[in-house]
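note to self: the first set is below, dont mix up w the second
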Amino acid sequence: MYCFNCMQEAEARGVCPHCHKQNVPDRIPHHLPPGTILNGKYVVGNSLGEGGFGITYVGLDKQLQMRVAIKEYYPLGNANRNNSQSNNVYTSTQSQTDQYDKGKERFMREAQSVAQFSGAQGVVNVKNYFEENNTAYIIMEYLEGENLLQHINRHGNFAADKLFRLMLPMMKSLREIHNKGVIHRDISPDNIIIHNDTLTLTDFGSARYYSNQSNEMSVMLKQGYAPEEQYRSTGNQGTWTDVYGLCATIYKCITGVTPQNGLDRAHVDQLKLPSELGADISKPLEAVLMYGMAVYHNDRCRDMNELMEMTQNALNNLDPNVPLVHAAIDTDRTVSANDIDWNAQKQVGNVDNRRIPPADLRQQQQQLRQEQQGQRREPEQQSKAPVIAAVSIAAVAVVLAIVVLILMLNKNGDSNTDSTTAAESTAVATHDASVSAVIPDLVGKTYKEATALLDKQELDYETKKETTDDPEKDNKVLVQDPKAGETGSKVTITVGSYEQPVTEPPTDAPTTAAPTILYCRADEYANLRTSPSSSSTSIARIPSRGAVELLDSSGDFYYVTYNGKTGYVWKVVFSEDRNAPLYTDEKETAPVAPSANIMYCCADEYANLRVSPSSDSTSIAEIPSRAAVEVLGTSGEFYHVRYNGKTGYVWYRVFSKDRYAALYTGD
């Protein structure tokens, strides 16, 4: 008997002596039942996770007695399975069947392509791929360790230079994959496993061939790690798309902050520099990182080869023996037919003012290199200009001293009340100058920038906090004493601390009407779209019976807010009656059982959706207070639920059939 969690020998329903988890098989209706045999030799265990393209299970190769990971093609919204009847996957409409078959064909073709790189450092090893149960499977090596997201949550953020060095082998392997015309499109912290300071990229389920740029690509992405071109099915995706994903992953792992999503950055770019968030990063590496995260692809580092070269330059601190970075856009450079016509594709409009264009980056590196060369020059080879300047300054100082001495002597002769001699005055002035310095301008600088300047000039400083209602002044110097340009030995800086202003309505203000709540009556989910058009981009999926707040109407669409996002939904699939009949027209979703068991989150902030029925298991999503979920089953003290297209487990105490049940405020 195998443990369905780690695939090592263990007793049924007991605690596994290896992974220390309860050996209980998952009972998820659309998953393969644990214990299923695939291709005659692969035993399926419990699921490790589920995404937009498929389900990943832990498994065992019976012949080799080796643990493996099994990726099953199961595209969300286009596939169905009821494992109590059959393991076969099926579709409900002809349009779903057409999309499903095309996707499965791509899944197998791309598995074959990625399998070419098995054994490459930094890329998961593909062992086998085949079709069964009217779907397709990829058998991959099982990777020990944890993903980068889990790692930083457990151990804290990386130092930038360490993480860039760990990423170099992966960049090299991605360069080879790109040369075959395949891009990953889903590089993110949860798709990179770290074990013994080695990084391995997994989950090529979103990978696509990009050599034919006229073909549309599906819009599947992770918020924060996808550039703006990936939000459009006709967006110009290529090697630069993976560059963005890799750099956004580094940004998250050195700051702990998920980057602003690419679509929002295309409108108003508010992405902060890592150094402003306290990241441990050098200026050259920060320049490389922000160049790799430029909003528009034609402003961005174009491929892994260029990213590797710039990274190595920055890690070597611009050693003179390291070649300079070449500019990314060079009209004299020969490029392949698959590359972009940079002049034709040049975007006009919003400009990412935080990026450092290649030409400026090269100039910055040249300047720093010249400074380093000057510091290494032997004394006899150094320029005589500093010596001449020093002699000139000394001569001026002597003249000024004589003038001051004459004035002081004259003043002493005119007044008997001043007993200080000119020599004594000169001595006092000299002593003050030795402990004082000209105070730099600190107002408007971040706390880290200000203290770095003060430390550089060996000035003592004291810090005070002052609350501000302006978010732009958060962690920035508001006031300094002494002021810039004055002299002194100690500086007091007042740093802003932003607090969200709380506005209370006047006591005589009219009572605000309760918001209008609408409920989704789609049989599976409804799309929250960016504009009132069925062809516009979907920014979220609202599950059946999920609640939204009505903001306005627009033709055939409602303008609503859902989980903090605002957008448009089709009117016909929403109703003020939570128990209204489900809408089963194929325009919106595939049909499911109409008797969905809907429950509502009554946690005071949010509840965690976990991969297994244990409070120690990984969280895959946060379910906000009052949000709706579909209950699929129970497991001990946990409900098995579906939320926003993801399935997992939630603690039963923080869910209720009553949407307005009292909030649970326990630990």
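second set (the one i keep forgetting abt)
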Amino acid sequence: MAYQSVLLKLSGEALGAGGGKALRADAIDVIAGQIREVVKTGARMAVVVGGGNILRGAEISDTVSVRATADQMGMLATMINGLALMDGLERNDCDARLMSAVSAHQICEPFIRRRALRHQDKGRVIVLAGGTGNPFFTTDTTAALRASELGCDVMLKGTKVDGVYDKDPVKHSDAQRFTTLSYAEVLEKNLRVMDLTAITMCMDNALPICVFDVMKEGNLGRVVAGEHIGTTVVARS
């Protein structure tokens, strides 16, 4: 495999995959089955889950008056998704542990770097929830932080879109997909691959990013094997 240690960032929406439901077993199974096949190769897997299919802290400012409280609600949403993904992984014969930056000892382990690495040594997938444990930070930033902490070779952003485009491909039929971008180009073009903090952290740690369609069966394994799928963000394009 081209990458031996991988962090996969999953949007919450990927666990629902449309249909008007926050969580769908078939969507979770598609992702879990691909993770299982990657783990079988001996690669180390960590997964950071978002919570947008349930609640986004930034989007409920008209309901919750304090931004920090809204963000904490979003962290709890990621924990729900983390439980669902862990269950899906175990349903697909893949050993997994849910770890969170927010303390909830009855349902998950606290994120401790050395403990996470030990789980990976034993072939377990670590599912990371609770964001960074702090308000005002996105799960994209969490993914960049955890990938750096765990010494990952690459950060994969699994979405329902097959890469990064110059404009919304749903609204514009002439949208062009980038195959490779530099960190600087992402920032200059404001392409919103991830938030600025996440991109800057990846740039500072020379951590490549690959944005790809995780709902297409087998794509995760192809990316980890080194096949060029989606859009790759590196130091120089």
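remember for set 2: Residues 67-91 form the longest helix (25 residues).
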